[in-house]
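User: Need the bound-state model for NAI:
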Amino acid sequence: MTVLYDRVALIGLGLIAGSMAHAIRDAGLATEVVGHARSAETRDIAREIHLCDRIADTAAEAVAGADLIVLAVPVGAMGAVAAEIAPHLKPGATVTDVGSVKQSVIDAVAPHIPDGVHFIPGHPLAGTEHSGPRSGFAGLFRNRWWLLTPLPDSDPDAVARLSDLVRAMGAKSDTMEAGHHDLVLAVTSHAPHLIAYTMVGVADHLRRVTDEEVIQYSAAGFRDFTRIAASDPTMWRDVFLHNKDATLDILGRFTEELFVLQRAIRMGDGQQLHDYFTRTRAIRRGIIEAGQDTAAPDFGRVATSAP
Ligand SMILES: NC(=O)C1=CN([C@@H]2O[C@H](COP(=O)(O)OP(=O)(O)OC[C@H]3O[C@@H](n4cnc5c(N)ncnc54)[C@H](O)[C@@H]3O)[C@@H](O)[C@H]2O)C=CC1
Ligand SMILES: O=C(O)C(=O)Cc1ccc(O)cc1
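Assistant: Bound-state model below.
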């Protein structure tokens, strides 16, 4: 495989950066992968499992001389990390991020990026409920979308090279305007996560539902909710705080629809329920036919350990 960047620096060594480290190193897409994490404990684990070619103790040391810098920290931490690394970036380098929200990351990061350094925000639509340096695996991005949200003045060659990298890691790449990305993701990912968190919270209020025996017999729907609701609390807190307007818009629409269905149940309107479920079934079948089913937990993973 071709080397696409000489030195890649990964900042934040969790699920996404860890998976990138595996995918890049397995496919020989960089000469050297350097990693940095804020906590000494994470850096120690990363060294122990040989996640990267080198683990740097500071973000500045990690990005020095790097051709591609990937910010893979929670969305709310992106701006501070960008400010920390900015003086140490090599002219001509590309900075990207993997945050689940795009406009707020652009607002927080872009002001710190020096002239002559490319900033191309991105978001892999791939993940699991696991986090931390042990959770990554090379196959995470295989056949998943990786959206890039370049700025109007982004250099097309730098965008093309980053797009080559994400494709070489097995993903499908596309570009999108950041605000549109945030609305689309509010519908397809952020609101569904909040609903899952809420549903598990509701069940927890009915204490008996979470008794082991009941969990054992719980239907697949609730089990899927509990998987999603086990996702990293810091990451998801930041997603909702930084995609506030779009998420609240979608939740408002969700509540209206919920009331429609609630009323149909109360009124015994079977026809309305049947029509509604027929429409939603067609949507699911459309997703499957388009090869976009990302719900199945089989990510072709090679390692299943979580910290
Ligand atoms: N987990 C998922 O399913 C997906 C996550 N993302 C995005 O990727 C980014 C990283 O997520 P994961 O890899 O899942 O997270 P993770 O929780 O597995 O790892 C995050 C890393 O960031 C570090 N970190 C946390 N707070 C920090 C701070 N204030 N300053 C510096 N470093 C800090 C942690 O020590 C850890 O090394 C997030 O922005 C998230 O929105 C994108 C797609 C999927
Ligand atoms: O685990 C799941 O079901 C996911 O939905 C993974 C995921 C989480 C956050 C993202 O920004 C993208 C993908």
